[in-house]
Hints:
Layout: H1 2-9, E1 15-19, H2 26-36, E2 51-55, E3 60-65, E4 89-93, E5 107-113, E6 118-124, H3 127-136
Parallel strand pairs: 1-4, 1-5, 3-4
Antiparallel strand pairs: 2-3, 5-6
Amino acid sequence: MFGGQLAKNCGKGTCVYLQGELGAGKTTLVRGFLRGKAYEGKVKSPTYTLVEPYELADTTVFHFDLYRVNDPDELDYFGFRDYFDGESIVLLEWPEKAAPVLDEPDLLIFIKLSADTRLLILEAKTALGQQLLLKIQ
C-alpha cells in the first residue's frame, strides 16, 4: 500500500499534508503509514481531538485532522506550531483550514475519488519532498 511505502521513506522532520473530500481516504492513508512504521496499536481519526500522537522507536508521528477548525487562530490555544519541531513526523489532514499559519509541507498529497478507485496526486514543496518523490516512484 502507498502509506507503507511512504512511511519507509519518511524520517524525522518530514511534514506531509493530505487533502481530499470527506471519505477520500486520508485517515486510511495515515493508518497505512503507521503500519509501515511498525506501529501496532489502534489508529483513530483525530477529528475531535485535533491531534493524535504515535510514539515510535525512533520518532513521534503527529496525526492532525483540522476539519473542525473554524478559525486558524484556534490552533494557537494548544501550541500547534510546537509540533513542527524537526524531530517528529507530521501528517496533517485538511491543511486548508489553517493555511494562514502553516508553512509549506515537504509533500502535499491530494486524494481524489473516482468511480471505484482513488487517485493520488503528489506535489513536492521542498527539497526533502523532491527526494521523497524520487524514492517512492
